[in-house]
Structure formats: structure tokens, C-alpha cells
Amino acid sequence: MDRLAPHLEPGHRRKAANRFGARAEMMAAWLLRAKGYRILARRYRNRAGEIDLIARRGSHFAFVEVKARATFQGEVLTARQRARIARAAQGWLADAAGHGRLPEDYSASFDLIVIAPWRLPRHICAVFDSA
Hints:
There is one protein chain. This protein is an alpha+beta fold. The protein has one domain: Trna Endonuclease, Chain: A, domain 1 (3-Layer(aba) Sandwich). About 35% of the residues lie in helices and about 35% in strands. It has two helices and five strands. The protein has helices at about 10-35, 80-100, and strands at about 40-45, 50-55, 60-70, 105-115, 120-130.
């Protein structure tokens, strides 16, 4: 966060980082819409965790983590983050099935969108599986 706004106090840095993250999520949603996805949820939360974006294209559901980074290099998702996203997705799928919003022949993936300054967003499909 210090790279984003090193001149700010810690509380203000957190707010600047949150704004940066919110803009990254907005850009990721635009990218997905341009690819033909419909955004079903933003910042979905349940007891198991949080998912930045849930999108649908046809009978395919994408559970998308958005990362705003200075560069595209380095570890992006830890094992703990992957497990949290997978648990939250299972909860969302169970809720959708219970309300009849889940097609019988659906597919799902865990995707990642990386946003870096002055670079085109990078959408990585099926970055991990829940097993």
C-alpha cells in the first residue's frame, strides 16, 4: 500500500487502497461484460469467505478474484485465499441451486483478473480448481 500513497497517514492509505481496489473491480467487471459475461454479484460474502465478482456466460459461472498490482509478477493467490474463494463459491452454488437459479448442465471456474497501472487487464481463466 505504501507504493500507492506513501505520503498519506495509515488510515488514509487504507482508504486509498480501497478506492484503488474498487476501481480495479470496476475495470474487471467491464472486461467481463466485453467478453459476454453478465455480472451476477460484486463482493459476494457468506460465512465461508468473499468473492470479488461472480459472472455468468450461458451456463458457465466464473468466480473471479480481482488483484490490483504494481506489476503482473509474483505470487497472486495463496493456498489460503484459494480455499476461501472455493468455500464461498460452494455456498453461492448451493444457494443458487436451492432457489432454482442453477442450470442442470452448468460449469464453473475460478478465474483471476490482474489489473496493473498502464497495462491492459489480464484475465486468467480456471486459475485453480477446488480439489
